[in-house]
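Worked Example 4.2. Consider the chain below.
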Amino acid sequence: MKISEVTRRNIFDALQNQKISWNGRLEELGFLTKLFDLEKLPSEDHRFKNAHEDIVQHRVSNHDWEDNWIFYDKRFNLLYGNDDDFLRFLCEIVNPIVRPDTDEVSSLVKIFNKYLGEDGWEIVEKTRISGAPVFSARRILVGTEYSLNNAMAEVPFPESTEVVISALTKYFQKQRKNNIVEILKAASAQIEQTDYDNWNGGIYLYTLYLHIPMELFAEVDLKLEEIQKTITQTAQSILRTAERDHISNVVVAPIIEPTSFISDHNEAEQKGKHLWEPGMLRLFISHVSAHRTAVSRLKQELHIYGISSFVAHEDIKPTVEWQLEIKKALCSMHALAALLTQDFHNSKWTDQEVGFALGRGFMIIPIRIDINPYGFLGAHQALPGNFNEIESLAPKIVNALVKNDSTGFQMREGLVVALEKSTSYLASIAIGRLISGIDSFTPEQIARMVAAHRRNSQVSGAFGVSEIIQDIAKQNKVDDEDDLPF
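Applying the procedure from the previous section yields the following structure tokens:
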């Protein structure tokens, strides 16, 4: 039975009436990239090539589309299109990466199933990541000897998970499939019944879930589909325990830890304290060493705006254990920037660095130098970058950090620190351009900007900066003439 337009409209109306953001904590581009190839969908604006550019223009740059535009956009066709796309969209709405609040997720699943049930579908939990449910859609089977609910509740896989993993590991060791062996050894595994076919007396279908550390997941991400297919085919071949029990699918997924993964974040910051400049935003730049010259220039440009960058080949002393220093930097950073060059994925270390940040919820800024974000990085909006235009790239990074909830305050603090320490008119002018577009400085930060203007001649003498600081102070009601040195 096809999911009707009535059901789809009812679900969309429920989301809008309760003012629920369909993209949750992800940016819209990050959410949609997981489901659609936006660069292959057409543009509806003659100025742009594809849907990706459309969305950037109308939801990022101008914000002149309605918040729920996706529900009625004909290119995505969620209202009239195939059931699979619609159901995948709903499951993504309640994905823990998108929506971490389990109470909200539970409420949404009930709403979805209230309407989907009329058309013979339901959203059900298929596995868990870091204790949070991950959902998939299935048909509701009624009127048969076994309902799907009963079959799933009562029939465990005949062999234990340990036996299955052991058998697969031994097989792939003999085949010298080292990447798969590494996955199997590192995985937290579970087998769950995920489907039931009542043909010929009933066949029970199971999924083998392999949850692996994010660092390892980032290494295998590009080959994930091939790896899952290989393990599935092997499991079906060597695990012939019963005619009616089949592992029909293998899912390799990352273990996603909450942002508060460090029990004592202050301790982590202390251990990495020597790597960063005080008061500035701490940015780890993940890159391939072949591009070290350009990365060094980027580090210098970012410093102008109050960003202290960690660049491994520059910031680790020769006598220090470099892997330990990198880990200290990762644990104490505020955000990570990934410079996506053509050779980025060839480096084992860059994938591990990105995996570390992904798994622990740090803000990640993919910067598209040669290639588009891949795998889980695709959920993050990328900044266009060019090593020949480093000066224009740095402000884009600053703006992205200012707009992010997890880094916004520290980035604003970094800008104030940079203004206080400015040693040139040009640096002060560059900072002034950025702070003029920010309206969320605290009163204390504004007072420090005013003080910097009073005490630092490189600020007060910089063209246009006095007016910018004056406007910020007055807009925030710091308007006592005695307080303003203008």
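Residues 267-421 form a domain with the Rossmann fold fold (CATH 3.40.50.10140). The beta strands are 121-129, 132-139, 188-197, 203-213, 245-255, 281-286, 307-310, 335-340, 363-368, 383-384. Compare this with Example 4.1 before moving on.
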